UniProtKB/TrEMBL annotation:
InterPro entries, sorted: Seleno_YedE, Sulf_transp_TsuA/YedE
TM segment ranges: 12-29, 59-78, 90-113, 125-142, 154-176, 196-216, 236-261, 273-294, 306-326, 338-356
Keyword Cell membrane tagged: no
Lineage of the organism: Bacteria, Pseudomonadati, Thermodesulfobacteriota, Desulfovibrionia, Desulfovibrionales
The UniProt record lists the keyword Transmembrane: yes
NCBIfam families: seleno_YedE
Any matching Pfam family: Sulf_transp
Protein name: YedE family putative selenium transporter
Top-level division of the source organism's lineage: Bacteria
Record key words, sorted: Membrane, Transmembrane, Transmembrane helix
Length: 361
């Protein structure tokens, strides 16, 4: 089975499954063109635990919990649980923060960019183009010896920290479910309107998350890696899975009546093309420098990578910064300080890229 997932047919199968499930999650209640969005869902989790108080994006998303726990289970089953850490954690945290800021200027992670396109949102074309440019800039640093250093084998407890955090989040969902139309239940915040109030049934969302976590961990599915491998090595193995995701989501959206082509009036999206592009340039560069897209970071955290867990925590903190300081976009357009945050993020990424090269040492 491991060999199958490592094959071209395997990665295509995983992409098809993710694309179908994402479109179905939207049909069952998740926001439009947001059946799965790692950045948006981590932002909702940040709101659920009170790190930001944007009332329309607060919900403990079970899909994210399932990604990590599913990857953990797959890693144990495949004897692939490898606790490791120590590869420039503070840099990974900062990259996670700015990756989230860039993603929320665009309003979506790489997965959602593809799902937005599969739903007919043509604004996603600018985001995908920006993602490729950002990853392309990252590959220039790779060619010049950019490296965050080697992670070291460490205690099993280090590798289990992020899965335990996610298990704790799941426990909080059961201990403090939303009561009637209350915006807060116990320690958790719940949206009463907006994207945060739109979600598929809990157990379906959790089940999908677990399945995707298992499949993606075994196949090494990664959107950033797909474009990186194409640019650096002219390899299309991972890209074939990404294309399969797009095709599957497009087909299911057509069947379910969820395909609406155009730029205007798309769900949870804005039409400021330049900043759709630039937001994802920043996000793509962060993903490249950190070594994986946000989904891949969750799967690696599930298989014991403490550095990936630090990146995930950085993204959650970045979501809090974005909504507390007016960086995040909305359907009305870019936030009041979103443009400045993109330039600051790019400057920080360039500093990291230029100063962490072997040739610069």
């Amino acid at each position: 089975m491991t060999n199958f997932f490592a094959s071209r047919k395997g990665i295509i199968s995983v992409g098809l499954v993710i694309g179908c499930l994402a479109a179905i999650l939207q049909y069952l209640g998740n926001p439009g063109n947001m059946g799965i969005c790692v950045a948006c869902f981590e932002r909702d989790i940040a709101g659920a635990v009170g790190l930001h108080r944007a009332g329309v994006v607060q919900y403990m998303r079970p899909e994210i919990i399932g990604f990590v726990l599913g990857a953990l289970g797959a890693a144990f089953m495949g004897r692939d649980f490898r606790p490791r850490a120590g590869s420039a954690p503070i840099v990974r945290f900062v990259l996670g923060v700015f990756a989230m800021i860039g993603a929320l200027v665009f309003l979506g992670c790489p997965w959602r960019a593809i799902l937005r396109l599969a739903g007919g949102d043509l604004n996603a074309l600018y985001g995908i183009a920006g993602l490729i440019v950002g990853i392309g800039i990252g590959t220039l640093f790779f060619r010049q010896g950019y490296n965050l250093g080697r992670a070291q084998k460490t205690y099993s407890s280090v590798g289990l920290i992020m899965p335990l955090i996610m298990a704790g989040f799941l426990a909080l969902m059961f201990l403090y479910p939303q009561v009637a139309d209350e915006a807060k239940s116990g320690v958790l915040f719940y949206s009463l309107k907006g994207p945060g109030a739109m979600h598929a049934p809990l157990f379906i969302s959790l089940g999908v998350g677990l399945l995707v976590g298992i499949l993606a961990q075994r196949s090494r599915f990664c959107t950033m890696g797909a474009f990186r491998d194409l640019i650096l090595f002219k390899q299309v193995h991972l890209l074939s899975g990404v294309i399969a995701l797009l095709v599957a989501a497009f087909a299911v959206n057509l069947i379910l009546g969820q395909f609406h082509v155009g730029f205007a009036n798309q769900p949870v999206a804005h039409t400021q093309s330049l900043w759709n592009f630039m937001g994802m340039v920043l996000a793509g560069l962060c993903f490249a420098l950190a070594g994986g897209c946000p989904g891949r970071q969750l799967f690696m955290a599930g298989e014991g990578d403490g550095d990936a867990a630090v990146f995930v925590l950085g993204m959650i903190v970045g979501a809090a910064f974005s909504h507390n300081f007016g960086l995040a976009s909305s359907p009305k357009g870019v936030g009041p300080h979103g443009i400045a945050s993109v330039f600051i993020g790019l400057a920080v990424c360039l500093f990291i890229g230029f100063t962490m090269r072997k040739k610069a040492a």
